[in-house]
Structure formats: structure tokens, C-alpha cells
Design goal:
Layout lengths: L3 E2 L2 H5 L8 E4 L9 H10 L4 E4 L10 H6 L3 E6 L6 H8 L4 E4 L2 H12 L4 E4 L13 E4 L2 E7 L3 E12 L4 E2 L8 H6 L1 E12 L18 E4 L18
Parallel strand pairs: 1-12, 2-3, 2-9, 3-4, 4-5, 9-11, 11-12
Antiparallel strand pairs: 6-8, 7-8, 9-10
Protein name: Putative succinyl-CoA:3-ketoacid coenzyme A transferase subunit A
GO molecular function: succinyl-CoA:3-oxo-acid CoA-transferase activity
Organism: Maliponia aquimaris
């Protein structure tokens, strides 16, 4: 089965359609699938629901999809750092499903494991629990959260072999593994594709069974907030 494609656009060919649910890996601007996001912007697909920890920043990453108004709904934990995200949400132009961060990660992981729902204490007694099933276990109240089963997963990894085994770089591991797991089709962009058999099995973070398509490319790796100390005068 061919998994390696020549470009992000080729890797997404025949996959995108209006109204689909996309799970996107990354945290802020760390480990985001920037090439695949650009290809989705260029495709013009619209009315998307995107499950991601946040929507990056204005003008980069998922922020580009918000600027082109291709996203109908976000399923996220955090809306800061992106003025357009906040503006669209507060003006009623964008639907937002808030998720506690751990709950969102577990919803993705659960979907990838074929688990339709799970109970958690997180959010009990808050607006997060409104409209959800409540159940008591050992005298404690839990709420039912549903697993996420996405039409498409887009993730960013450091290395891969041609079978799709992925290795993530340090904190870029973040939401990428659970996001990759929950998609009917997973497309991964990587910095390097290495020969089959060259990856230490103990170092593989996500097995290739979850990954359907791969693309190698150059990445900007923009820093979300750069903080430096003032230069000391000698």
C-alpha cells in the first residue's frame, strides 16, 4: 500500500469534502501540521468542524482556516492567542464546543480505540456538564463524554518510515498521537522519511497501522511567543 505522497495537496486528494470533521494535532504552534493546513485552505473546502486543542494564532496554522471562514465549528480547550477566533466566537459567527484539555485528548484517544464514550469527573458541576448524562460510581458523580470519530486526522511528526511508523520530537508529541488515532483517514506530514527497519521499535510513538498517507516537507516552526532578556552592556 502506497503511503508516501509528493505534496500535501496530493496527500489530501480525494479525501476532503464540505462539512467534514477534522482532528488536528499540535499544541499552540508546537507540532502543528502546517503544510496540510495550507493545503486545506487552498482546497476551498468549507463548513468544517475542527477538533484541536486551540486554533493557533492569527495568520498561521488553523488561524488561516478561520480567516478564510472555512470553519463552522471548533472543538477546543483554549481560544486565546487568536484574536479572530475570539472575535468570531463572541459575535456568534463560529460555533465552539469547549472541552477540558484532558477530556479532549481522551475523547480523541477513545475514538481511536473504538470506545464510543467514557465517564469522567472533570467538568461535573460546571457548564461543561450541561445536557450530558450523569452517573454515580462509588458515591461520586461522573459525566458521560463521547469519543471523537473524525473523518480526517492531520498530524505533524519528526520522522517516519514508509509504512507510517511515526516518531514525534519532544513536546511536539502533545495532541498528535490521539488526534492521529481517531481519524478514519490519517495524513501525517514529517520532516524526514527514513528507510524501513531503521527506526528502533522502542522509539516509535505511533504505529503505522493508524497512518494512511505521508508527506515530507520543510516547516517554518514559528515560535508562538518569543521571550528574551535584554542584552547586557559590556
Amino acid at each position: 500500500m502506497k503511503k508516501v505522497y509528493g505534496s500535501a495537496a496530493e496527500a489530501l486528494d480525494g479525501v476532503l469534502h464540505d462539512g467534514m470533521l477534522i482532528a488536528s494535532g499540535g499544541f499552540g504552534l508546537c507540532g502543528i501540521p502546517e503544510l496540510l493546513i495550507d493545503a486545506i485552505v487552498a482546497s476551498g473546502v468549507k463548513n468544517l468542524t475542527v477538533a484541536s486543542n486551540n486554533a493557533g494564532v492569527d495568520g498561521f496554522g488553523l488561524g488561516k482556516l478561520l480567516e478564510t471562514r472555512q470553519v463552522r465549528k471548533m472543538m477546543s480547550s483554549y481560544v486565546g492567542e487568536n484574536a479572530e477566533f475570539m472575535r468570531q466566537y463572541l459575535s456568534g459567527e463560529l460555533e465552539l464546543e469547549f472541552n477540558p484539555q484532558g477530556t479532549l485528548a481522551e475523547r480523541m484517544r477513545a475514538g481511536g480505540c473504538g470506545i464510543p464514550g467514557f465517564y469522567t469527573k472533570t467538568g461535573v458541576g460546571t457548564v461543561i456538564a450541561e445536557g450530558k448524562e450523569h452517573k454515580d460510581f462509588n458515591g461520586e458523580t461522573y459525566i458521560l463524554e463521547q469519543g471523537i470519530f473524525a473523518d480526517l486526522s492531520i498530524v505533524k511528526a519528526w520522522k517516519a518510515d514508509d509504512t507510517g511508523n511515526l516518531v514525534f520530537r519532544k513536546t511536539a508529541r502533545n495532541f498528535n498521537p490521539p488526534a492521529a488515532m481517531c481519524g478514519k483517514i490519517c495524513v501525517a506530514e514529517v520532516e524526514e522519511i527514513v528507510p524501513r527497519g531503521s527506526l528502533d521499535p522502542d522509539h516509535i510513538h505511533l504505529p503505522g497501522i493508524y497512518v494512511h498517507r505521508l508527506v515530507q516537507g520543510q516547516h517554518e516552526k514559528r515560535i508562538e511567543q518569543r521571550t528574551v532578556r535584554k542584552r547586557e552592556e559590556v
